Amino acid sequence: MADLLNQKQIEKLLHTHVPGIDEVIVEYVQGYLNDAATAVSNGDKDVGEDPVEDLIRPMLEEAGGKESKVEDLCVKFAALLSEIEQKAGPAKRSGMAKLAAPVHMAAQLAQIDKAARLAQTRPADLSHTKGRSVASQVDTKKLKKAEARIAAKLQKREHRSLYEASKLIEENPMDDDELLMKVNPILDYTSTRGKIKDVKVDNFDISYAGKRILTNSSIHLVYGRRYGLIGRNGIGKSTLLRNIARRELAVPTYISILFVEQEMAGDDTPAIRSVLKADIFREQLLRDEADVNAELQRLDAPAPLDDNGEEMTKLEIEAKKNELGDRLNGIMTKLQDIESDKAESKAGEILNGLGFGSVDFQRPTKSFSGGWRMRLSLARALFCKPDLLLLDEPTNMLDIPAVVWLERYLRTWTSTLLVVSHDREFLDEVATDIIHQHSEQLDHYRGNFKSFWDTREERRKNQIKEYESQMAYRQHLQEYIDRWRYNANRAAQAQMKIKILEKLPELEKPEDDKIVTFSFPDPDSISPPVMYMDEVTFGYNSERKILENVNIDMQMDARVAIVGPNGAGKTTLLKLLIGKLDPTTGMVHRHGRLRIAYFSQHHVDQLDLGLTAVGHLKKTYPGKTDEEYRSHLGSFGISGMTGLQEIRTLSGGQKSRVTFAGLAVQNPHFLVLDEPTNHLDMESIDALTNALKLFKGGVVLVSHDERFIDSVCTEMWVCADRKVTKFSGEGIKEYKKLICPPEEQ
C-alpha cells in the first residue's frame, strides 16, 4: 500500500470525516483501497465493479458517517484511484489494443455457423490425439494472471464476510435500554392484545463470517410454548438467536423481543432500579404521568401562559385541564393493566430467586462482578416479560438453588421462550419443545429433551432402515438392468426397471453422529501426601473472612465436587489449592513435583482472541510443530481449518475446547476445574466426562451440572458459612433436595 496510497493520509481522512470510526473499519477500508489500487495499476480492474461505491460507502454509512461527509470522502477516494489509473498508462488502463486490420463480423459469424453445423452432423474424432502430445494453445501467463484475479476476488469477498462478522464481535454494544428501544419500535404493547403472536419464518438462509449456518430453513414458534434450541458447538445457535433478536428474520414488529446475550454494563444505578428500568413501557407511562401532573400544577398557578407566551383565559385553562385529565386517566388505566404498583415487589422476588440478598438491592450495578451482572441481565429480562424471550445458556452463572428457582419460574412463563442450553436436566424441566440445529437445518420435536432423545433415536433408526432398504432395491434393479438390457427377450422389462429406478426418490444418507473424544495423558506417579490444607483461613481483609479453619486432604485418585451457594468461596478455595491466592493463616501443602492444570470459568479472558487456536498453543506451550498442535487440537474437536481461525471467531464451546487442549499439554497430576461444562455442547460434556473417568490423576471441580457431578465425582464438599465440610449424603440429588425442598421446586 505504501507504494500506491498513503496509509496515514487515508487514516486521517477517515477520522476527520467519520469521527469515532472503529479502527477495524479503518483497516478494512485501507485494505479495500489497497486491493483496488493494485488492480487498476495492473490493468485488472473489473468492468462494472466500483470498490468505493460497492464496498467502502456501505461501511462508512454503517459506521455512522453523515451522508454529506461520506459523499465527500468517497469522491476523494475515487480521485486517488483515478490518479493511479492515469499513471498506469492507456494500455493497462483499458486492457485493449488497437487492431491491425478491420474485422468483418459477418464473415466471422458465417465461419462459426458452418463449424457448428459440421459438429452437429459429424461425430468428433479424437483418435488422432492418441499416442502423441498436442502443444497447448493456452497463454500460461494470461492464465496465471486470470487465476490471480479470481483469487483476489475470492479474498476480497472473504474480507467482506470477515468485516461483517467483525461488526458483531468488535462493535461497541448498545446499552440494554437502547437495544430494547431499537428492536421494539412499538412502545404501547397494550395495543397489540388480541393479535396472533406466533413466529413463523420460512425459507431463510443465515451466514456468519463467510460460513453458511442455515440453508432454506424454517422456524415456527407457537405463542406460549417453551423451546429448547440444541446443537453442537459452533453450529450457529447464538447466531440464530441474534438474527431473530435484531429482526433480521421477518418477525412482526408488534411482537416484543428481548435477547439476554451479555452481562449488563455497570454504573451507579441500584440493582433493583436497573431491573425496574428494563420495563421501558412502564417507564414511559411513569414519565408521561409525571409530565401531565406537572402541567396540571402549572395550570393551577396564577396567570398561566399558553404556548405562545400569552396569558390563558379561564375557558382555555378549563379546556386544557379536561384534555390533560382524559390523558391522565388513560395513563392510569394502562398502569393498572400492567399492575405497575406491584412492580417493585415483583422485581425483588426475581432478584431473590436469582440469589441476590435484600442488602444487594440498593448496591450500584458497577459493584457487582461479571457473573452477578449477568444475573442482573437475566432478572431484567424476566421482569420485562416480552412476547418472545431469547436466552443463551442462562444457567451458566447460576448456582444450584438459582437454577432450581429459574426452572420453576420459567415453567409458569406465559409468552414464548427460546433458550439455548446444554443442560439436560434444565431442558427436561423447562422445555415443551426441542429444536435441533444441525446440517444447516432446524428439526422440530414435541416434548422435553428426554422425549426428543427417544424420538430422534427412533426416527434415526427408521431413516437408516429406509435408506438401506432403498439402496438394496436400487442395487437389485441395477443388476437386472445390467444383465438383461441388451437381451432381445427381456429388453422391455429392463426398460421398465430403468423407469422405476429413475422415479425412485433420492434419499439422503442419515447423518452420522460425530463422536467427540477428549483425552488427558496419564501423569507420572508421585508419593503421598499430594496436596492438603491445614487450618487455612482466608479473607481479603480482617473484617471480611471468606474461608475459616479449612482442613482437606487430596490424593491422586480424588474425584471431588465442591458445591454451595454463589459467593460462599468455592472459586476462592480452588485458587488457594493451586497457589493463585495465599492463605491469611494456615498452610497449603503441595508435593514438590505436583503439576496442576487449572480451568477458570473466565478462561476466555486468558485467551488472545487475535491468535488462532494453533497460535495460542504455540505461544503458550512452545516446543512442538504446527502439525503436532493441530493434531492435538483435533483430539479435542478443534479439527480442520477451525484450528487456523482466529479465536475471536470461535463459539464459546470451541474456546473451551482450546483451553482444555492447553490443559492436556501440561501433562498434569491434578485437574482443578471451575465450571468446566459452561458453553460445552452435550457431546463435549459427555467426552469430558469420559476423559475424567479415565484420567489417572486427581480431579477437583466446581459445577452446577447435576448429571456431570453425578457421573464424575465420588465425593462432595459443601462450601458455606466460611466452612468446607464433606457431604455425607448420597450425591448431588440428595443435596439438591436438602437445599431446595420439593414444595419449593
TrEMBL record:
Keyword list, A-Z: Acetylation, ATP-binding, Nucleotide-binding, Repeat
CDD domains: ABCF_EF-3
Record-level Gene Ontology MF annotations: ATP binding; ATP hydrolysis activity
One of the Pfam families matching this protein, by short name: ABC_tran
InterPro entries in alphabetical order: AAA+_ATPase, ABC_tran_Xtn, ABC_transporter-like_ATP-bd, ABC_transporter-like_CS, ABCF, P-loop_NTPase, PWI_ABCF3
The ABC transporter domain, residue ranges: 199-464, 531-745
Highest taxon in the source lineage: Eukaryota
Stated name of the protein: ABC transporter domain-containing protein
Organism this protein belongs to: Linderina pennispora
